[in-house]
Amino acid sequence: MNQSRADLDVISIAIAVLTFILAALVMSGALSGGQSQCGDFGFTCLGNAFIVLMLGTLIGFVTALMGLILARWRSWCGWIGLLLNGLPALALCGWLLLVFVARAAP
Question: H-type helices in 29-75, by residue range?
């Protein structure tokens, strides 16, 4: 199967954009019937949006990394996809680490 090496790079950018849009919709409560119905599983709208954003950026990061490896690290779209998915994932992981450190303090 002959595929272009840019396919995974473009897919990773699309994953990033769709993840941001989906997280914004989840945060606003548009997918659950409103802000008042976000707590169905013990989460708030913020918690649901955090999960969507974290999973989407990790999937996009892996896709961008695979595209860059296939392109031998020479793809601009791959680097853009890596930044669009990697920076939010890194920021969310840092924020999550701060939450756990704050909870561990007496």
Answer: 45-70
CB-based contact 8:21 (threshold 8 Å):
no
Please calculate the CA angle 47-45-58 and round it to the nearest 5 degrees.
45
HSE-up of residue 70 (Cα within 13 Å, Cβ side): 16
d(CA 23, CA 50): 7
Nearest Cα to 26, choosing from 6, 1, 54, 3? 54
* Tens digit of each residue's pLDDT (9 = 90 or more) over 30-52: 877 776 677 666 667 888 888 99
| Block residue for tokens 């008042």 | 36
Residue 11's identity, in one-letter code, is I
> Rounded to whole angstroms, how far apart are CA atoms 6 and 85?
16
Q: Which token pair is 106? A: 């007496």
Q: What is the pTM of this model?
A: 0.83
Tokens representing 88 are 């939010």
